[in-house]
Amino acid sequence: MEVVLPDGSIWHGLRTLFKDNMGYALRHLFAGAEGTLGIITAASFRLFPKPAGVVAMVAAVPSIDAACTLYARLRTVLGPELVACEMFTRPCLDAVVRHVPSARDPFAAPHPVYVLIEVASFEDDAHARSRGLGAMAALMADAIITDAVISENNAQFRALWGLREHISEAQGAGRPVIKHDIALPLSKIAEFSSKCEETLSWQFPQCRVENFGHLGDGNLHFNIVPCPLIPHEAFHELTGSVNMLVHDMVTSFSGSISAEHGLGVLRRDEAARYMPSAQLNLLKAIKTAIDPAGRMNPGKLLANQSGLS
Amino acid sequence: MEVVLPDGSIWHGLRTLFKDNMGYALRHLFAGAEGTLGIITAASFRLFPKPAGVVAMVAAVPSIDAACTLYARLRTVLGPELVACEMFTRPCLDAVVRHVPSARDPFAAPHPVYVLIEVASFEDDAHARSRGLGAMAALMADAIITDAVISENNAQFRALWGLREHISEAQGAGRPVIKHDIALPLSKIAEFSSKCEETLSWQFPQCRVENFGHLGDGNLHFNIVPCPLIPHEAFHELTGSVNMLVHDMVTSFSGSISAEHGLGVLRRDEAARYMPSAQLNLLKAIKTAIDPAGRMNPGKLLANQSGLS
Predict the structure, then answer these.
(1) How do residues B51-85 score in pLDDT, each as one tens digit?
(2) pLDDT at residue number A309
C-alpha cells in the first residue's frame, strides 16, 4: 500500500512481497481502518489464475443446521474446489422472485433454506460438474439435502447466482429494512439464528427475519423487515431496540456486530460498548499515536477523543 | 489471540471469526511483533481439511529463471492443487548427499537447479499423480524442465522432501554459514540471484553462494559458505560486508531483508537503515503508544527508544 499519513508524510509500502517481516504488519493496520489512520492512495494486489471450469448449484435444505452440515461436508470433500457457499432463507427467495422479473424459483416446492455453491476446477467445466454432482449425491443419500439443481451453461450459472445477488435490492423494495452485518463462529450459526428469530418473534411480533449471507465466512445479513400492514414509521422506531436485541445476542455467542461493513458512525458507539475495555484502549492508543490531532476521518470507527475522555 | 499487554491488562481476542471488522486488525499487529507489544498467551487457529491424496515431484531445470517459469506455469495449470514449490541449487543438493547417509541424488546427471513440488488432490493419490505428471509432461515438451521424478509411495514422498528439508543442517555441517532470509518480487528472483552471485564472486572470491528457498513465497535463503581451504576466522570477518552487499542489492530490487525470521537484534539496525523514515516513525509511534515504558522484549525489532533519539 501507499498511504498518506496525518503529518503529510507518505508510507511507500507498495512492494509486492508475499512474506515481509521487517517490523509490524502496517498494511493490515491501514486496511479496514476506514481512513482514520491515513489515506490509502495506492495498493498492490496479488492475482490468482482463473479456474478452467466452474459450476453453480443450489441445494434445498430443511434447516440452517442442515446448511451448516452441508458446508462442513463440502469443505472436506471438495477442499479448495469449493469457492463459494452462500445461504438464503425462503422469505429472501420469495422477495427476489416477486421483485425480479427474470428470477424463477428453481424448485417445484418451497423449502425453508437454500444454499448456493460454486465449484471451480483447474481441469474443465465437466470436471467441476462431476465433482459437484458427486458431492451432492452423497449429501442427498445421507438426507442432508432435500433437492438440488446444477447449472448446465453460463446463462444458468448467472441465473442461480442472481437469486442470491438480488436479495438486498429485492428485500428493500418498497419497505424499510433493519440491517445487520454479523459474524459468528460456524458452529453457532444455526443455534443463534433460531434463538434470535424466536426471541424477536416474541418481543417484536410486528417484525419478520429475512436471514441470508456468506455462510462460508460465518457472515450473516440477519435482516429485519416489517410484517404486512405494519406502518413503516412504527417499524422505524423499533430500530434501536431491535439492534440491541440482535447485537446483544451476537455478542453472547462470541460473534461480531461488523463482519465486513466496518463501524463508521452507525455502529461506532455500539462497538465501543461491546468491545472489551483493553481492546478499546488499544484502538484509542493506536489512533492517538498515528493521528494525534484527530485529522483523519474524524468521528468514524472511534468517537472523537474529546468525546471519549 | 489472547495477549497480555504491557500494562498488565489482557486482550481477549480468541473468538473464532473469519470476518471481523470491529476496529483495527489487532491480531495482525501482535503476530510478528516479536513480543515487543505484548505476550501472546493463546491463539485460535482455523483448520483446513486434509487432502485425500498427495504426490511430491522434483524437477531438474537449467536455471533459476526456468524455475520461476516452472512455478508460474504450475500455478496456472494446477491452481490450488499446487501446495508447495521449493527451490534448491546444485551445491545444496551436494551438501545434503554428502551429509545425510540416506539421501540420494534422484537424477543420473547433475543439474544447476532443482524444484520440489507437492501436488494435493481431494480425490485420491492417483488423481494427484495424474495432475502432476500431466503438468510436467507439458513443461518438458516446452523445454522448461530437463528431467523430473515423481513419488510412487509415501517413502519416496518423504525421501524427496528430505532433500529439501536437510539443506540447513547439511549446509552448516563443519563450516560457518552467512545466512540471509530475503524476499523478492517473483519477477525479480532470477535477475537478483545471478547479479548478486556475480558481484559476490568478484568482491569476495573466498565465498560461495548456496541458494535455496521457498520459491512460491518469493523467499530465498541466499546463504554464503567459505570456499574450500579458506580459514573460518577470515570468513567470519566478512559477515558485515557480505550482509551489506546482499541486503543493499535486495533493497534495490524492492525486496525485504527479513522474509520470515523477523528482525530480533541481528537485523534490527540494518532494517532501520533500509526502511523509509515514514515507516520507521510509524513503528516507533505504535511501540511507544502500546508499550510506553519499553517493558516488552526491549531492544528487539526496534532499538530502545533512548538509543534512537
Answers:
(1) 999 999 999 999 999 999 999 999 999 999 999 99
(2) 38
User: What ranges make up the beta strands (E) of chain B?
Assistant: 2-4, 10-12, 39-42, 53-61, 82-89, 113-121, 147-150, 182-183, 207-214, 219-226
Q: Which residues pair with B288 in a beta bridge?
A: none
CB neighbours of B189 closer than 8 A, spacing ≥ 6?
A: B64, B68, B215, B218, B220
Residue of A nearest to B14 (CA): A254
pLDDT at B1: 96
Name which of A19, A274, A278 is nearest B10 (Cβ-Cβ).
Answer: A278
ipTM of predicted assembly, 2 dp: 0.94
Please state whether beta strands B219-226 and B207-214 pair in parallel, antiparallel, or not at all (unpaired): antiparallel
**Axis-axis angle for helices A64-78, A189-203 (nearest 10):** 160
- C-alpha span between B62 and B143 (Å, rounded): 10
Apex CA B131: angle with CA B167 and CA B152, to 5°? 55
- CA separation for the pair A292, A307 (Å, rounded): 15
**C-beta of residue A29 within 8 angstroms of C-beta of residue A69:** no
Residue A306: pLDDT band with limits 50, 70, 90? low
Residues 6+ apart with CB under 8 A from B65: B190
Shortest Cα–Cα distance, B152 to chain A (Å) = 23
Q: Which residues of A touch B12 (CB under 8 A)?
A: 276, 278-279
* C-alpha–C-alpha distance, residues A116 and A108, integer Å: 17
β-sheet bridge partners, residue B57:
B117, B150
Q: What residue type is B188 in one-letter code?
A: K
Q: Cell 434501536 appears where?
A: A240
Contacts of B79 in chain A (CB under 8 A): 48-49, 51, 80, 120, 122
**Taking the model in full, what pTM does it have?**
0.95
Suggest the residue from A17, A86, A130 to mutate for an interface test with chain B (most B CBs closer than 10 A). A17
Q: Which residue has the cell 424499510?
A: A176
Q: How many residues in chain A?
A: 309
Amino acid identity, residue B169? E
Neighbours of B123 (CB within 10 A): 19
> At residue B199, what is the residue type?
T
Q: Do A122 and B257 touch (CB under 8 A)?
A: no
Provide the greatest CA pair distance for chain A.
63
pLDDT exceeds 60 at position B242: yes
